[in-house]
Structure formats: C-alpha cells, structure tokens
Specification:
Elements: E1 2-7, E2 11-16, E3 20-25, E4 30-31, H1 33-47, E5 52-57, E6 63-64, H2 66-72, H3 75-78, E7 81-87, H4 91-103, E8 110-113, H5 116-129
Parallel strand pairs: 3-5, 4-6, 5-7, 7-8
Antiparallel strand pairs: 1-2, 2-3
Helix pairs in contact: 1-2
C-alpha cells in the first residue's frame, strides 16, 4: 500500500506501508551532481527525518557520474536509509556499482542486484534480522 508518493523532476518516489522507500529513476538519463542533489532533496521531503529501507530501481540505461555516486554515499543521502538496495541492469550501471563498493565505504548495508525480486528478498531478510 502506498503511504506517500512524489513524481519528481528526475525520479518517482513511493513510500510504501512496509517501510520501503522505492525510488524509480528515469531511463536514459545520466545523473550529474545537480540532478542527484535534487533527487536527494525530494527524498528528504518525503522521509521527514525518518529512516526506511530504500529500494532504488535504476531506469534502463540511466547512470550517474562519479561525483553523483559520491553524493549518494554522503551522510545526507544515507540519513534516510536503514539500508539501500539498488536494482541495476546495464554494463555502465555495473561499473558504477563496482566503483561504489570499492571506493565508498558505508556504515549501513548497501547492495546491488540484477532483479527487483532479489533486492526485495534481501530487504525482507534485513527486516527479519533487525
């Protein structure tokens, strides 16, 4: 069930009743630091200081710059997350995921998946363990 929803300039954000914040990025967009900052601002407006399990559904062929990846790993972008699961599909997205995991260490769980089903299973396992 949907608790809140925001159709933003660069993504759609849905707060679900199961404490999952679903972020769907648009396809064929390379997100620079300005666009990523807008997405983070939109997410913060929905979360209102609370933390959720974040499920990011990356749009087909969308990607982020290295600077944007650093923003996504920043304390501000992690402040609304209990954990983040990214669903990716393209080779470019896989490269950025490897960069993130190798260079941007987090104190909260962050994992990348090739299917939404596997990402949802991981989130469910985290909820059960928590």
């Amino acid at each position: 069930m949907i608790v809140k929803e925001l159709k933003g300039e660069y993504c759609n954000i849905t707060l679900r009743s199961d404490d999952v914040l679903e972020i769907t990025t648009f396809k064929d967009v390379e997100y620079d630091d300005s666009q990523t900052a807008t997405v983070i601002r939109d997410v913060l407006s929905i979360t209102e200081g609370k933390q959720y399990y974040v499920l990011v559904l990356s749009g087909q062929y969308s990607n982020v710059t290295a600077e944007s990846m650093q923003l996504l790993a920043s304390p501000q972008a992690m402040s609304y997350a209990l954990a983040k699961a990214y669903v990716i599909s393209s080779p470019a997205q896989r490269l950025m995921a490897n960069f993130f995991l190798a260079n941007l260490k987090q104190d909260k769980p962050v994992k990348f998946f090739l299917s939404q089903e596997k990402a949802e299973e991981w989130i469910t396992s985290l909820k059960s363990a928590g």
